[in-house]
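## Example record

The block below lists the input lines for one assembly entry, exactly as stored, with component labels intact.
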Amino acid sequence: MSDVSHEGVHRHPAPTGFIRKYIFSVDHKVIGIQYIMLALAAVAVGMTMSLLMRLNLSWPGTHWPILETLFPTGAPGGIMTPEFYLSLVTMHGTIMVFFVLTTAPQGGFGNYFLPIQIGAEDMAFPTLNMLSFWVTFVGFIVILLAIFVEGNQRLGEMFSALGPSFAGGSGTVGPIGGWTGYAPLSALGKIAGPGQGAGMNLWVISIAIFCVGSLLGALNFITTLLNMRTKGMSLMRMPLTCWAWFTTAVLALLSFPVLLGGGILLLLDRIAGTSFFIPSGLYVSGVLSGSNPNFPLHTGGSPILWQHLFWFFGHPEVYIAILPGMGATSHILATFARKPVFGYRAMVFAIFAIGLLGFFVWGHHMFISGMSPYSAIAFSVLTLSIGVPSAVKTFNWLGTLWGARIRFTTAMLFAIGFVSLFVAGGITGLILGQSSLDLPMHDTYIVPAHFHLVMGVASIFGMFAALYFWFPKMFGRFMNETIGKLHFWITFIGVYAIFVPMHIMGIVGMPRRYASFAEYRFLDTLHPLVVLVSVAAVVTIFAQVIFYFNVFWSIFKGKKVTNDNPWEATTLEWTTATPPPHDNFAGVLPTVYHGPYEFAVPGAPNDYVMQTDVGAEVPSGNGHNGHKH
Amino acid sequence: MGRVLAVIIWIITLLSVLLFVSGKWWFPAPISEHAPALDRQFLITIVVVGIAFTAAQVGLGWMVWKYRDTGSSTGDRAIYSHGSNRLEVVWTVITAIIFIGLGVMGQSVWASLRLHDAPPGSYTVEVVAQQFQWNFHYAGKDGKFGRTDPKFIDDGTLNFVGLDSSDPSAADDSVTASLAIPVNRPVELRLRSKDVIHNFWVPQLRFKQDLVPGMEIKVHFTANKVGKYELACAELCGQLHFKMRSYMLVLPEEEIQALQALPQEQFQARLQELVNKYPLPTYQ
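Predicted structure tokens for the full assembly:
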């Protein structure tokens, strides 16, 4: 299969008009940049929300005039209400998980570089690719709408014309439910409190739209990788980035439909009076289900069903977020270590093992949910076994650095930072994965500490590394390395200062998703840490302003690239023009002769052998060089 | 650059470990019989976690220190190696034994708490949570819970749990806003919710359990220290989730017997006196 190039099928002429070229483009490179821009916009919103949350937690009751101007009902007198805080929690999580961690790593970098790295002219289905971005974009607009419909009285009233469940304007910036939207709180509607009307409807609709976009993307990635590899690009000659994007696409294909189904059922419970997640006999805000038109009769639903559906998607989602970062880290570590990836084959198996096991551990989110205690034992042991392929990856990254000649570019710093953070965040999975230890740890701050480090920050570090690394190929200019390194140092130290103390808060027992800790004396002792975390967060967020400046300044004013392979790398994206032409290789698809990471080959004239170097002699190594089929 | 990065990684590692071993912040002192076993399992796990974390970070720092490109000679190259199958097998097997071993070890505490019913003679309380309030339902003198049904729930007349007044065994029942349980005797809680999911969380007991509408979930434990403890909701339940606080009183057996014999109003008044009498534990 890998020898088939499908000439003529995917070739489409370069568009000339602005709209077809930059807006409704079918070029995977433009679409990739669109996804990255979407993620940059979304992360700005999500990060601002985390800033507001930290301000409220460490300096409660402080008057913030800007809040009063922007949200007169959510922050009367400039002081945040608890419902405003909780809607920030929900929207921060939703925007970050879906519109940042699922878009940039896969839709962004995967879209841009997967076809080039396997030597294809474009994705298999370019129009579908365009659709998947624009569907995702609509999802983002809908989630932003939730902010304004709940935050703005007038807009909220306009929406209530759609039906009673659509009433908004409760002074929040979205629903209250966390990114997990547990039913029946998320299913009951306006009667369950502020944010549960229009905000929750738009939240569910946005996620359902997002699922469709991701599904379209996943189909495209899988087809492209399986069918469109160029001559000589056998599976085991693919860069590890491609393995990661491929596995991610398979995870997305199998998990997003489940969330889509769950989301539709939840929406039906909310607007059509069904009872998938709502049991009988509920008594909410003084009203018995069925006794009053504000609260119709519900009967026979299961709140735990929602949790199963959500986490059957939600746990693979964690790997959807981080696998591309792992791929980018392996790729960048090898390039700047000037060494082949240690244990390429083991790395491929580990990616697969993580992806596969990722489907059998969702129940570890539900140890205390009331599900069978026997299934908890199975979920617990399976969860700890997922640490094994994760550790294998870490050992192999260290093995890659062993005996290296490391060049400390900004991209390399972030890749090394990824390894450090992946270990720091992942290792506490050994605690949370044990059903017995989850009894005290569940829903305390150790949980956000764990998943922010590993799926949040480590994934983002993978993306930072990817952006500094590939930016010159994408835009023909380098990002500024001095600013980049400053960005790295502040962010690396900052994220540790934010998230390590949160583990301690969890041990003491501080519950997450609390708008204030004032009610509880056992939490008083943690106040200095709460303030420390907030200060670290403010500094770290400020460092991201430097990053944004670097990105946009460098697009127009960065140092120009004078060489198509500035990092002396080996894979196909560095064999083509900068930026690559519309069909990637100017009409001549490359032929591949070597594995992806042939650095420091003894006897070779340079310390790197590109995959297309026809004359180079490469020892057969440890069976790592894939064989042509 | 390599040396700076190595030193920073090492300093972060040292400070992180110090934060954990400082002893300034830790679990509140336990008050349940299963807690020491759970705390021991936590300690074993966190020592393994700490060693693995430190080893990986120190190793990573050492790699970036030692193998930085010094540019000393232009022909100087990295080691050409694609890995070692033997090493892959060794570290896969070792981590598998440690990780899965930890997981299996942890099951004994879980099994003792969750795979068995409460022992006979346990003191039983029905817990009914609702948006931002806890209700604790006691059987009274006859030891039998009066029948409850959602259709009788009326927050307006303070029938928070929906007691059926036509049931004779309901006459001596009491419903309170604080939880009172006996010391050194197994306690069974029957957890229900009227509206959304809540979670029962007393840090000193070392367990959490969701209260799920439409389900009755039973948990059991034995508290072994008399006193007053804060009880929190640990599952996001809406606007005032953070204010859904109550107290759990662990009382001598005779105090519980005396309470149980009182009619509802006196039960409530006496319990309130006891809540006011006992101080919270002192937290460092």
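The two ends of chain A are 8 Å apart (CA to CA). Confidence is low (pLDDT under 50) at residues 1-9, 621-629 of chain A.
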